[in-house]
Design goal:
It is a single chain. The protein has 208 residues and is of the alpha/beta class. 43% of the residues lie in helices and 15% in strands. It has six helices and six strands; from the N terminus they run E-E-E-H-E-H-E-H-E-H-H-H. A hairpin with a 5-residue loop joins strand 2 and strand 3. Helix 2 packs across helix 3.
Amino acid sequence: GSFFSGDYDFIFLSALIEPLREIYRNKENGVKVVFSEYCPEHKTLDAFKKKYECIGITSPEQYTVFLDKCLKWLNPKTTLCIILGSTFEYPGCEFQSQYYQKFNKVIKNFANGRQRLKIIEMDSLISSEADFDGNINHFSSEVYYKLAQSICKVTGRDSSTSYAQKYYIDLLVYARGVFKKVLKQDSFPYHICQKLYFRLTGKKDINR
């Protein structure tokens, strides 16, 4: 089934990056789209630039409206789980850290008392700067493993090594699938992500 029509027990949404993406509004009909890393000088985006205008990033209040709609449209038996970004003051990511502080506070207050809305905070899985991997939204393999354990706990599954490892690998496989869709497979960023995937999963790269 689809996101809203499927018979799911749990749906997990990451709020690590999406809230920081800029929203663009169609100048004619008002339709809004999220468009990351928009570059006005890029020639191939001239048509987009003429039709859309930037109206800023997603506010915490806008995100609560989105969550409220999700809870209403989802199967009443479905629990929605939100993963909140880290407020740790990571070098070069000061804006993201400050924004997450404001964003997370509003989302946690909104979730309070709503039984079908659960929160996982990345801050609870991080103890030092060493837990990051070059960016406030990228983490060490140990943190991702802890995240897998947190997911097991939320779903009521056994958080033992076998279950946690399964969810950890599932997360990496999902991330790899996303990268394969958005990155050209002969590009440098794709090869970096590919190497990271094999390193974290322990799988062998058959192309070597």
